């Protein structure tokens, strides 16, 4: 009986010893660590020890000869600090047997991710053996448009040559990446896109702008190879299909390449030309030079690229030169039926109309050829007229630095040539776009180069401008207003507030005259051209009236 009691006591003592040892082993294998949050990407990590703190290991002290240098938590903290600073050399020093392209793999990952910031939150260190450990961590990356991207990874550590080192694989960057794999950014496309109006709408049917839109596509202004719609980050591992780990798709897919064309203005221009065979309307915004509409029934983008004699619409430029030369809209001038250039040819008014003594404003409104020829011969010369035309976008013969197709003229070499050029005949030629820009310059007081159809630049870029003297701009507005009030465009169906200039131009080949009307109303300037249409009042003004009344 006594022996049995002694045996029981021995067994209890043994049990207490075993459970005590087991408790030490469990405690030694799991060591809780507080969170480590790395600094935002691109900023230095704080100096000194980080928040990776372990409780002292309960195991007995090893002999100094076999004790590894440092600890796994210290190595991990140093590694994460170097990571958030993109210090790949420091990271490499902490890695056991790093690959030759260690830094390159990190850079390629960052180039694909394009993260705006990086945060790393560290979990609890876990001992996986006497000389091995791992520590889980979470990466948080702020991605453009997609918000925060979070994913979990693990950092493995081991004792190598009595030093705690990181055992690195690409899975440290992202757990899905295998050796030889990488993170790749892809940008799917929406396919070829057609140009659309400035508001994103498709162009009106049969708008007359089709040739210009096709030209934009052919010139590469509108991307024909497709437009990127969102993006995706994929893990590309050898021998495996790519796996998407993050993607972004905008709520609205782009409907097309935006142009400066205004849908309502374009539709009004197109309908104003219904039933007209050979004509064009170009509308621009005077304050910016943006093209608001182009409806062309001439073919081959003639409204922008083919030049015609502008006729009396060019008197706007001649009048600018005269206003610059000291005249005013109220200056008294003569408008005889015929003016004989001294020792040269006679110049006739349309239908030999004689208006006697009038103001310069009235002579402009009545489109007196004789008045403008006489004033040009007496007050101007070839150089003066050419210089004034340059200020309105015209190119003189020999201007090799200017490749504009807007308008052109040769320097007049004698009084007859100077006379013809002064009222838009002779060597003067201009596109409908060019003459719309002339009208726009009068309204805004500044000639501006036309903005391209593709609206890809901020306001004010891609354009040259030439300011008009204030007295010239104000004088031209007075002259053009008189045309629609009591001049060649008066009594028409034009809406109130329109100012302009009619033009009737010989085609130089014996055919019917070309008809012009240029003008503006508010922040919209325009040119109407009818090939072989007859007079400006008879053919071009009614089209302008339909166009403006539809807005």
UniProtKB/TrEMBL annotation:
It holds the Pfam family MecA_N. Residues 280-548 form the Penicillin-binding protein transpeptidase domain. Residues 37-74, 397-421, 490-510 are annotated as: Disordered. Gene3D superfamilies: DD-peptidase/beta-lactamase superfamily, NTF2-like, domain 1. Residues 398-408 have a biased composition (Polar residues). Residues 38-49, 56-70 have a biased composition (Low complexity). SUPFAM superfamilies: beta-lactamase/transpeptidase-like (SSF56601), NTF2-like (SSF54427). Residues 71-179 form the NTF2-like N-terminal transpeptidase domain. It comes from the Bacteria. This is Penicillin-binding protein. It comes from Microbispora siamensis.
């Amino acid at each position: 009986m006594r022996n049995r009691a002694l045996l029981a006591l021995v067994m209890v003592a043994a049990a207490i010893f075993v459970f005590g040892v087991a408790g030490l082993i469990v405690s030694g294998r799991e060591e809780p660590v507080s969170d480590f949050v790395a600094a935002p990407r691109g900023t230095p990590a704080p100096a000194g020890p980080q928040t990776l703190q372990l409780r002292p290991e309960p195991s007995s002290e090893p002999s100094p000869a076999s004790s590894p240098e440092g600890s796994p938590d210290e190595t991990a903290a140093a590694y994460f600090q170097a990571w958030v600073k993109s210090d790949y050399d420091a990271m490499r020093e902490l890695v056991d047997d790093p690959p030759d392209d260690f830094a390159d793999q990190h850079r390629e990952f960052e180039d694909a991710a394009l993260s705006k910031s990086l945060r790393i939150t560290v979990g609890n260190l876990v001992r996986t053996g006497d000389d091995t450990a791992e520590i889980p961590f979470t990466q948080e990356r702020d991605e453009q448009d997609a918000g925060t991207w979070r994913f979990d990874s693990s950092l493995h550590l081991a004792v190598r040559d009595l030093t705690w080192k990181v055992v690195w694989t690409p899975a440290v960057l992202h757990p899905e990446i295998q050796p030889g794999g990488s993170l790749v950014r892809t940008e799917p496309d929406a396919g070829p896109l057609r140009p659309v109006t400035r508001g994103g709408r498709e162009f009106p049917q049969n708008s007359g702008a089709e040739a210009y839109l096709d030209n934009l596509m052919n010139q590469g202004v509108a991307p024909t190879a497709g437009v990127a719609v969102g993006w995706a980050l994929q893990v590309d591992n050898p021998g495996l299909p790519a796996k998407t780990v993050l993607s972004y798709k905008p709520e609205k897919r782009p409907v097309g390449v935006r142009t400066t064309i205004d849908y309502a203005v374009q539709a009004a221009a197109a309908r104003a030309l219904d039933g007209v065979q050979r004509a064009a309307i170009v509308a621009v915004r005077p304050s910016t030079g943006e093209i608001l509409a182009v409806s062309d029934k001439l073919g081959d983008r003639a409204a922008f690229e083919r030049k015609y004699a502008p006729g009396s619409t060019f008197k706007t430029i001649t009048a600018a030169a005269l206003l610059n030369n000291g005249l005013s809209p109220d200056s008294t001038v003569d408008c005889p039926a015929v003016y004989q250039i001294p020792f040269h040819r006679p110049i006739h008014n349309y239908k030999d109309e004689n208006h006697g003594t009038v103001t310069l404003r009235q002579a402009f409104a009545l489109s007196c050829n004789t008045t403008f020829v006489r004033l040009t011969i007496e007050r101007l010369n070839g150089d003066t007229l050419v210089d004034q035309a340059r200020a309105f976008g015209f190119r003189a013969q020999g201007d090799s630095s200017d490749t504009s197709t807007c308008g052109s003229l040769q320097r007049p070499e004698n009084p007859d040539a100077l006379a013809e050029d002064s009222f838009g005949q002779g060597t003067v030629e201009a596109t409908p776009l060019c003459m719309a820009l002339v009208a726009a310059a009068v309204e805004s007081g500044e000639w501006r180069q036309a903005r391209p159809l593709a609206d890809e630049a901020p306001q004010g870029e891609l354009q040259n401008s030439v300011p008009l003297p204030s007295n010239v701009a104000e004088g031209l507005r007075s002259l053009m207003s008189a045309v629609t009030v009591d001049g060649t465009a008066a009594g028409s169906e034009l809406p109130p507030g329109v100012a302009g200039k009619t033009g009737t131009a010989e085609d130089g080949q014996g055919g019917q005259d070309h008809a012009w009307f240029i003008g503006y109303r508010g922040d919209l300037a325009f040119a109407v051209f009818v090939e072989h249409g007859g007079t400006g009042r008879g053919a071009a003004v009614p089209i302008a009236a339909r166009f403006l009344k539809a807005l």
